[in-house]
């Protein structure tokens, strides 16, 4: 393992020079997340570019219509800053509610935002404010900054300088803490402005599991009438949340709605009556590709409430069913489409073997994967066609992964009236060994990312795009995302 070099620039210009010179280097803020990830071997930058002496990133400036907070300002400074306590009390309180004094003394606003932990408080606060995140290259509205779990719009070499938050009439952040880490099990931030803006009320929720998100229905209700009562009857759909060892998706969704009421009540002085419990719903039959056939024409990936590990997706492809079928059985097409796939070999008509390198575990691991294909109904037997795949992969000492995947294809007319293919898949992944401890959220997060990339790429390749392997940036983004998830998992 090569040694990591430590660099300590004193200006933004020097930081940029360091990153240009050492593209495998990584910015170091307080190190709360990054050093933990390095200790676990989840990331191994060539250089650490420490930002603590960069004065351009240290300011808090309050003006009549906005506040500027530099990326390197710690949670403790934000909590203790008198002007913020008076004019932006929500920010000071949010910062004060983060973990313990030691964490607050070292953790930074910029590090938290760049990390984009799906249970972190700052992404919710910043999104609710409709803040602007300013980098050395551009201004990014908060609505476009948080792109996925542990993933942001920041590009390689981009440095977050700070955040500009507009003044608002009232703001509140309420969280229900995960007792061990004090991260938000769920947290809700609400801001309300009396200025004539497009969104006078903004509601942002963290902790549901898919990353911070706004709740448009609550915003519309509160815009119509600024009171707890206006939220009566509003529920967050459980499929907006994820289950893990700490809480189920439906519990998280329920908590989100309750906390939203409490946040409004804290501002209006009302009592945050709990919403009436929803009537028990009829248990749904497990969804298979066939049962999904007519539910949704859009492309999507879904998590299943009855089996949190199961996922499914549905995609429209412009090619015919036989063309899609052939492509799915062709290693020359599959290899460039599967993120991190180093090789794939057809052993016989029904057996394949693949080597896929992913960022699972302490170091990026090679999964040696065996694939057994069972064509249940090939195109020659008419539609809908269907095949089953049994995948089993060995990830060395980390354990094994396996999945049963059902793929279902039928002809579908596009909105433009041309015939294409609707491809639906349903997978039940399982992990064993050490990997099993990581739980459904990891499987969900990685499977969602991978399947999205796979189908985007498949559509491109079938449309005639080059079959060159995926650009490293895409693969890197996914690995980073997964590594950060693992890093937080181990921190708890
Ligand atoms: C026990 C514990 C409990 C916590 N509880 C909470 C909580 O309740 N709520 C909450 O919001 N947070 C919480 N945190 C998060 C914590 O406070 C930090 O904000 C977070 O871990 C990021 O750490 P950091 O600021 O030290 O950044 P680092 O770990 O140094 O960096 C994190 C990532 O951001 C990148 N980065 C840092 N600065 C920049 C920049 N200026 N530009 C671009 N990229 C940058 C780094 O390269 C790295 O990838 C908790 C942390 C711990 C350890």
How would you explain this protein's 3D organization?
- Strands 15-16-22-21-20-19-18-17 form an eight-stranded antiparallel sheet. A five-stranded antiparallel sheet has the order 4-5-10-6-7. A four-stranded antiparallel sheet has the order 11-12-13-14, with helices on both faces.
- The model is unreliable at 280-296 and 470-480 (pLDDT under 50).
- The chain has two domains: 57-268, Uridine Diphospho-n-acetylenolpyruvylglucosamine Reductase, domain 3 (2-Layer Sandwich), CATH 3.30.465; 298-491, Alpha-D-Glucose-1,6-Bisphosphate, Chain A, domain 4, CATH 3.30.530.20.
- The protein is α+β, with helices and mostly antiparallel strands and 492 residues long.
- 31% of the residues lie in helices and 28% in strands.
- The chain is globular, with a radius of gyration of 24 Å.
- The protein has helices spanning 12-21, 34-39, 75-80, 82-87, 89-96, 101-106, 109-115, 122-128, 142-145, 216-224, 249-268, 289-292, 321-328, 331-337, 439-462, 472-491, and strands at 5-7, 26-28, 47-50, 60-62, 66-70, 132-135, 139-141, 146-148, 151-152, 160-166, 170-177, 184-192, 201-206, 213-214, 300-303, 311-317, 341-348, 351-358, 365-377, 385-394, 400-413, 419-432.
- The site of flavin-adenine dinucleotide has 34 residues, from strand 2, helix 6 and helix 7.
- Residues 26-34, 51, 71, 75, 98-99, 103, 106-108, 110-112, 114-115, 120-122, 154, 159-160, 181-184, 491 line the site of flavin-adenine dinucleotide (FAD).
